[in-house]
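Dear support,

Our group has been running a series of protein-ligand predictions, and this particular one with tetrahydrodeoxyuridine is the one our PI (initials K.S.) wants archived with full inputs and outputs. We had some confusion internally about which version of the output was final, so please treat the block below as the authoritative record. The input we submitted was:
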Amino acid sequence: MECSKLIETAMQARENAYAPYSKFKVGAALLAKNGKVYLGCNIENASYSATVCAERTAFFKAVSEGVKEFEAIAIVGGKEGELSTSCAPCGVCRQVMAEFCDEDFKVVLGTPQKYDVYALEQILPLAFSKTNLR
Ligand code: THU
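Confirmed final output from the archive:
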């Protein structure tokens, strides 16, 4: 799937964001190696700490359905009514990516017209991983 299409899909996912506290809405589209795309949005909570990011929503939907191999994720976000030109994933979401993805997993940030593609190893160097536990 083309990166621009994956970003458009993330923009659709963002429409379901539940962000009454921060008013910062995020959408993610996670492309699995089997070709399926899992959508995620951020889901906030009055307790704040129970909030979950868009990226993790997408990963946990896929993994909970038995899918654990991934190619790429597109992420878009911004304040309600706006869309930032680049919405980088938080550290916790990068760590979740590292659990399931190879170093060359692609993280796509930007707009359908202008985007950048990062390899996971670029944005999470020296990750703690399951190999540390051997
Ligand atoms: N958020 C995400 O959904 N993904 C990220 O990688 C960074 C932050 C959400 C969490 C919260 O609902 C809002 O953005 C403001 O932090």
